[in-house]
Write a structure and sequence with these properties.
Bound molecules: uracil
Order of helices and strands: EHHEEEEEEEEHEHEEHEEEH
Largest sheet: 9 strands, mixed
Helix content: 10-25%
Distance between the termini: 28 Å
């Protein structure tokens, strides 16, 4: 690849982004002469690099490539990168993923549990949250009342929310008294809760179980795992 000014960046920033350490740790590491670029020890963090042939203690250092991560989100965490008052889903990412620059794909409400994806790829992020893509999401809900045939028909025609918003056709499957599966392919604010409320079926518990071809599987609540390249392709 042509090395232009555009894909050059400071060595210290490169090392931080690659997860080598915090800015002050990277400064110490450089000062100690532990970093080489193309075989030469570099102590100056402001040196520009294209990321090629960088070693720490003799081992190659590289930026994390495309990553997609699945979390089984517990209740009580907001889907946001930062929040001054509330716990965020970012706090549940394991140490080694902190430097991956992950962003949540879409959002789950604070009290909603289940499948939440993250990626470090901006294009993938936008493709997956676009309603035009129609990625199907399946939710399990416990709710007041029991859904009947008229509710199922209303969902398949496209629910009109209490504020007049028209939703795309969706699928409601009653699976027992006060329990349903709901499949939607868009992601309006509080969508499932508001769709159910418009039918008088107030949701008391909500869990996302599937997104496109992905299911939670046996991932424990609060746990996180990286998707395989096959799983990313299936997205
Ligand atoms: N719909 C909701 O109402 N809440 C969620 O968290 C996700 C979908």
């Amino acid at each position: 690849m042509l090395k232009t000014e555009r894909n050059m960046e400071r060595l210290d920033k490169f090392l931080c982004d690659a997860g080598v350490g915090s800015r002050s740790q990277v400064k110490q590491i450089l000062k100690a002469g532990r970093v080489t670029v193309k075989g030469t020890v570099i102590r100056d963090g402001s040196v520009k690099t294209d990321g090629a042939d960088i070693c720490l203690d003799g081992d190659a250092v590289g930026k994390k490539g495309l990553a997609v991560v699945m979390m089984n989100k517990p209740a009580g965490y907001v889907t946001a990168r930062t929040d001054e008052r509330q716990k965020t889903v970012m706090e549940l990412l394991p140490e080694e993923m902190i430097s991956w620059d992950l962003h949540p794909i879409g959002r789950l409400d604070k009290e909603t549990e289940g499948l939440l994806l993250f990626t470090n790829d901006g294009d993938l992020l936008h493709r997956l949250i676009s309603p035009k893509k129609g990625v199907q999401k399946v939710y399990y809900a416990r709710h007041e009342g029991t859904a009947g045939d008229e509710d199922v028909a209303a969902f398949s025609q496209g629910i009109v929310l209490r504020d007049g918003t028209q939703c795309l056709p969706a699928m409601l499957q009653p699976i027992g008294e006060g329990e349903s599966l709901i499949t939607v392919c868009e992601g309006k604010y509080h969508q499932v809760r508001r769709m159910m409320a418009s039918r008088g079926l107030h949701v008391t518990y909500l869990e996302r179980r599937e997104e496109g071809a992905l299911t939670l599987g046996d991932l424990p609540r609060g746990a996180v795992r990286e998707l395989s390249s096959e799983e990313i392709l299936a997205l």
